[in-house]
Design brief:
Blueprint: H1 13-23, H2 28-44, H3 55-67, H4 73-90, H5 116-125, H6 130-139, H7 144-148, E1 155-156, E2 161-164, E3 173-176, H8 179-201, H9 211-216, E4 236-237, E5 244-245, H10 251-264, H11 273-286
Antiparallel strand pairs: 1-2, 2-3, 4-5
Helix pairs in contact: 1-2, 2-4, 3-4, 5-6, 5-10, 6-11
Length: 294
């Protein structure tokens, strides 16, 4: 005699969203953002299932974000992308937004470009390893997350090259390591190696790998080559594997350190981590270099 329990229940909505994100190889940050917005959308409408909501419900939520929550343009666009993904790719039921509900265009602002002297003043105020990270943003033209997601295997000191994996647009690229940073990078790699040896001795030593590699090369997650160049201070238990895992340094820690360094350096402009990359590009242009591949 068959039982209803023999039929597996379909996964819950947010699990469906996570599976759809992973099937498309979205980054973990994108997955967290999408599930977060979809959760807020459902709560906004009294926990109604999206199958029972229409384009008008999406419009009401986006209008609430803009008019009452006063969110930024980029935040509202991210929320809209999350909901369109939910209906189009997860539920396979595309919806039509009412006329007049527009995705606002992001305002274009001129980037903050630091002088060479200002860069030096800020770097002098930063502790390690934040100073080395900021130096790579400026000297190698990296974005903050690109620097933090570097693995040991991505650093080639002999050729003075860094390999950026899945940068903006999902593309890999090579960039240079300034000769002045090679010694400090080698010291950082030595610190990572010693820390990894201690982690392994204590029964830890794992890092999270890209999904496809984690399935194909299970043992790679404990190899030195895959450790982050700028690891977090503490390990945590990975929810999927239950293993003690060490992530990379969180970007907010670097952002806070740079904000404090800018203030301590006496610079009145609102410079951020991204200002180092803008300054890198500007200074290369001033020196006559072609920056189209940066």
């Amino acid at each position: 005699m068959s039982s209803d329990r023999s039929h597996a229940r379909p996964p819950k909505l947010l699990e469906q969203v996570r599976r759809a994100c992973r099937a498309r190889q979205f980054s973990r940050r994108t997955e967290e953002a999408y599930t977060g917005w979809i959760r807020r959308y459902v709560l906004f409408h009294g926990k109604q299932h999206p199958a029972n909501l229409t384009g008008g419900a999406v419009a009401a939520f986006l209008t609430h974000l803009a008019d009452e929550r006063k969110v930024s343009t980029s935040t509202q666009n991210q929320a809209a992308s999350s909901l369109l993904f939910l209906y189009r790719d997860v539920r396979s039921t595309p919806i039509d937004l009412p006329h007049g509900v527009l995705r606002p265009k992001k305002q274009r602002r001129l980037p903050i470009v630091l002088t060479r002297g200002e860069v030096a003043l800020i770097l002098d105020e930063l502790p390690r390893p934040h100073r080395l990270i900021a130096s790579l943003l400026y000297g190698s033209g990296l974005r903050l997350l690109e620097a933090l997601q570097l693995r040991v295997k991505d650093v080639d000191l002999e050729r003075k090259e860094l390999t950026v994996r899945r940068g903006k647009g999902g593309h890999d690229r090579l960039t240079m390591i300034p000769a002045t940073l090679c010694g400090e990078l080698q010291r950082q790699l030595n610190i990572v190696r010693r820390q990894h040896e201690r982690d392994v001795a204590e029964g830890a030593g794992w890092v999270r790998l890209p999904a496809a590699l984690a399935a194909k090369y299970a043992s790679a997650a404990r190899e030195l080559a895959w450790q982050y160049v700028f690891p977090a201070a503490r390990t945590h238990l990975d929810g999927a594997t239950g293993r003690p895992t060490r992530h990379h340094l969180h970007e907010t820690a670097v952002q806070r350190a740079v904000t404090l360094a800018v203030r301590n350096a006496g610079i009145s402009r609102r410079a951020t981590c991204h200002s180092f990359r803008h300054s890198f590009a500007t200074h290369l242009l001033e020196d006559g270099y072609d920056i189209r591949t940066i």
